[in-house]
């Protein structure tokens, strides 16, 4: 099982040092969250909390995850980065293809593209994108981005996007992995059908095990049972070496953690305390040999 350090809701000015520390202590990757803006009033519930409220406020810091990946990639050499997850529905696929390809090239193929639809109508409408038919449109967006990133002269004529032959150079020298987020049946089917992995929001160990079982059945249904597939998990109730062993046995391949939050230090803990928490976490889980 791999370990990814999430930098959700942390100060932007700490990201470079967090990346360097994560690589130094042995993390495999950094997970980069996405939020475009904080609307004063939300018209629909946030889907990943019991009461539908957001876990952040207007002053919570965010940074564009693609720009962050490029900046953090410049000060590291082995650490990987992936969006967790970028909301496709409010964006344009050709512009994203240029951005994703640039990050993949600048990081020497150390970038994975985690994608979701987006939950807030305001993010769609205020960015000039329709909220209606968002699922079908995102499916087409993924198709467009993959097509362009593969390189060469390409064209696309779909229901939502239509363009004649074009080329973006340089194309990444390796395929960019795509990871799909979401807990609904539709999202799980999308992940199994077209992606290289699935990424969770906050879930219990039992929920993760159940979802991974569903995904494996869907992969078999789509003829992809033997295809490499990542199960990236944010677990809220499995701690200690025994808990991590249970997650690995359930099929989790990538455990997304925030060490300083797990220690009760909070998202805005001082940078040095975050580094110390990362070192303690790595000693306990990454280098302890429990997976040998």
UniProtKB/TrEMBL annotation:
GO terms for molecular function: alkanesulfonate monooxygenase activity. GO terms for biological process: alkanesulfonate catabolic process. Signal peptide: none annotated. Pfam families: Bac_luciferase. InterPro entries: Lucif-like_OxRdtase_Rv2161c, Luciferase-like_dom, Luciferase-like_sf, SsuD_RutA_monooxygenase. This is LLM class F420-dependent oxidoreductase. The lineage of its organism: Bacteria, Bacillati, Actinomycetota, Actinomycetes, Mycobacteriales. Gene3D superfamilies: Luciferase-like domain (3.20.20.30).
């Amino acid at each position: 099982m791999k370990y990814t350090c999430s930098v959700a809701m942390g100060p932007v000015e700490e990201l470079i040092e967090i990346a360097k520390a994560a690589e130094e202590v042995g993390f495999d990757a950094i997970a980069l969250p996405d939020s475009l803006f904080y609307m004063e009033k939300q018209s629909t519930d946030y889907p990943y909390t019991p009461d539908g409220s957001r876990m952040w406020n207007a002053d919570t810091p965010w940074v564009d995850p693609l720009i962050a990946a490029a900046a953090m990639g410049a000060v590291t050499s082995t650490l990987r980065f992936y969006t967790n997850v970028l909301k496709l529905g409010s964006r344009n696929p050709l512009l994203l293809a240029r951005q994703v390809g640039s990050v993949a090239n600048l990081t020497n193929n150390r970038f994975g593209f985690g994608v979701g639809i987006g939950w807030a109508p305001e993010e769609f409408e205020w960015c000039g994108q329709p909220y209606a038919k968002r699922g079908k449109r995102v499916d087409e967006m993924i198709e467009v981005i993959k097509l362009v990133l593969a390189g060469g002269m390409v064209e696309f004529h779909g229901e939502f996007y239509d363009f004649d032959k074009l080329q973006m150079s340089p194309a990444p020298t390796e395929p960019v992995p795509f990871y799909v987020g979401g807990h609904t049946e539709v999202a799980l089917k999308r992940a199994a059908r077209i992606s290289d992995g699935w990424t969770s929001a906050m879930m219990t160990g039992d929920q993760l095990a159940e979802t991974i079982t569903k995904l494996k059945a869907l992969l078999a249904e789509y003829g992809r049972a033997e295809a490499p597939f990542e199960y990236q998990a944010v677990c809220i109730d499995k701690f200690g070496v025994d808990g991590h062993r249970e997650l690995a046995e359930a099929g989790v391949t990538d455990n997304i953690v925030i060490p300083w939050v797990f220690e009760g230090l909070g998202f805005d803990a001082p940078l040095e305390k975050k580094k110390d928490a990362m070192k303690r976490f790595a000693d306990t889980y990454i280098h302890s040999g429990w997976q040998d």
